[in-house]
Amino acid sequence: MRMLILSGGLLMLAGCAGFGIPRHDPAQAWIDLDSKQEDTALQALEVDDKITDDKRYFQVHPGSHELTVRYQFAVQPTNIGPDAEPLWRDCQLSVKFSDFNAGERYQLQAGNIGFRPWAKLYDQQRKVIGQGTPAGCQHT
């Protein structure tokens, strides 16, 4: 029985290893996602109104694109009231950029100030090249 459980566990680990992030296609631009604060989640949702296959990154053809991300975060009691519990927000943000280049890596970072989410798109030289606009939030 132990052997069955052990081999099942190893098979699961081997299966998970096959689902790592794929190699960067040099004919496309790669956009990494990074949330700047702890206890947050940032996910890729759409490219040009089409649902993404993988929520961990974007990979797009050169040119102009609109990226939509989902950012989940907690508004801390210091922004609500002294006796409040953290309030969870689930937001979508859109970032438009007109000049993605093949083979380049970009980074999309998100964070929040109180109730307001923000997103910034950086190029390889860490220059801000795009800003997110809120596309709707809800409390969870």
Describe this structure in words.
With 140 residues, the chain is mainly β. It has one domain (23-139). The chain is 11% helix and 54% strand. The chain has 1 helix and 9 strands, in the order αβββββββββ. The protein has one helix at residues 2-17, and strands spanning 29-35, 41-47, 50-51, 57-60, 63-75, 87-100, 105-113, 116-122, 128-139. Strands 3-2-5-6-9-8-7-1-4 form a 9-stranded mixed β-sheet, with no helix packed on it. Strand 8 and strand 9 (128-139) form a beta hairpin. The longest helix is centred in the first third of the chain and has 16 residues, at 2-17. The relative contact order is 0.20. Mean pLDDT is 85; it is low at 1-18. It comes from Pseudomonas jessenii. This is Lipoprotein.
Q: Can I get a quick summary?
A:
With 140 residues, the chain is mainly beta. The protein contains 1 helix and 9 strands; from the N terminus they run H-E-E-E-E-E-E-E-E-E. The chain is elongated, with a radius of gyration of 18 Å.
